[in-house]
């Protein structure tokens, strides 16, 4: 049986949001304010994620899976995690993985991908 796939904000490289079978997938989100520290970039990324989830018809209380990539996990894990702790819905925590990665631009400190139920 074929399921409809909804793609939102697509370009030649990716779709920002893909909805399939009741699950919202949000592509990797990075900050636009590249001179911000890890807390500033994380706050901006999570605010963008709130907007993308709302656009898809869901919210952070419905998160299923989160992948977090940090430029420097030793330096930035605590700062990112402090902001995450303020933002996350403590009654509805998703699965989560955090790792260190070489990101697309040297100024980027964090990138986050999420999936959520509708």
Short description:
With 118 residues, this protein is α+β, with helices and mostly antiparallel strands. It has two helices and six strands; from the N terminus they run βββαβαββ. Strand 1 (5-10) and strand 2 form a beta hairpin.
- What is the topology, as strand order, of the major beta sheet? 1-2-3-6-4-5
Number of helices: 2
**pLDDT < 50 runs, ≥5 residues:** none
Proportion of residues in β-strands: 35-45%
**Fraction of residues in H or I helices:** 25-40%
How many β-strand runs?
6
How would you characterize the overall build of this protein?
The chain is an alpha+beta fold. The chain has two helices and six strands. It has helices spanning 38-56, 73-87, and strands at 5-10, 15-20, 23-30, 63-70, 95-100, 110-117. The protein has a six-stranded mixed β-sheet, covered by helices on one side. Strand 2 (15-20) and strand 3 form a beta hairpin. Helix 1 packs across helix 2. The longest helix is centred in the middle third of the chain and has 19 residues, at 38-56. The radius of gyration is 14 Å and the shape is globular. The two termini are 20 Å apart.
């Amino acid at each position: 049986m074929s399921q409809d796939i909804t793609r939102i904000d697509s370009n030649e490289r990716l779709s920002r949001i893909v909805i399939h079978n009741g699950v919202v997938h949000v592509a990797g989100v990075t900050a636009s304010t590249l001179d911000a520290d890890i807390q500033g970039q994380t706050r901006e990324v999570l605010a963008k994620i709130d907007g993308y989830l709302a656009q898809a018809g869901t919210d952070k209380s419905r998160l299923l899976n989160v992948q977090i990539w940090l430029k420097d996990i030793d330096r930035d894990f605590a700062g990112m995690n402090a902001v995450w702790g303020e933002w996350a819905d403590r009654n509805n925590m998703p699965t989560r993985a955090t790792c260190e990665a070489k990101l697309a631009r040297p100024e980027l400190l964090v990138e986050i991908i999420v999936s959520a139920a509708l």
